[in-house]
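Archive record
______________

***
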Amino acid sequence: MYMKVREKKKPKGIENMINKNAPIGVFDSGVGGLTVAREIMRQIPGERIVYFGDTARVPYGSKSKETVTRFSRQIVRFLQSKEVKAIVIACNTASAYALEEIEKEIDIPIIGVVKPGAKVAAEATRNGKVGVIATEGTIGSHIYSRYINEISPEAKVIGKACPLFVPLVEEGLWQDPVTDEIAKRYLTELIDIGIDTLILGCTHYPLIRSTVGRIMGEGVTLVNPAYETARELKELLTEKELLNDEEPELGDNRYQFYVSDAAEKFKTFANSIIKYGILSAKIINIEQY
């Protein structure tokens, strides 16, 4: 059992003490964060990854800030036990609820998926109307509005909670009449408002990007925070001189996957998203951390 992380100030030059050849930790409430892991693999192919999917406690979007923060702290402690050199919160809800607190508590770089997506959306919009589709937790936090308005104070940010998208994606119904019908119901309001930019504000949503894009039409720019987060991570590691300088070999040690439940289902799902061949997904008792 790990002790509760205490808030502490980060000493200057801490990155000099970090092993640059250590893996990157990535976590999500379930399989959605695999879209972020996939982008990291594409954009920074020399890095190792330790991924944790909290499949026993998915979804996070309907849970309280206190609960999501507690879950996130447990996962961060687990990833630290794997001696990761940086952490990516590949979950919009956890990024909104827990990132600001946790980054004060640990001595390694940690980023979320909200800021990178918000920055791109603020720069991409032409008419100043930006839509955000996400979980109830992310929409209720108004975090996208806050970040976008810091960059573009005149922008109007319209959030739409889409709670059914996560279970539809988790069940593999990416291109299905049921998903089409639900998407039309969710997105009609945003179409009527006339947004020209739409943030896929949950890491599960890129898996139904084609459905969302078809319904929204060609005039709407879709922003995928997974892509932008991987790009920001690469910039961060470069800046802190933490890019891996040892090319890892393919295999279990390069990409490690852990879950809190349903390992076989996760493995099957992950292999449909990531084409590197996931050899195993190990179950851990996250409540011990």
Summary: Residues 25 and 87 are 5 Å apart (CA to CA). The longest strand covers residues 129-134.
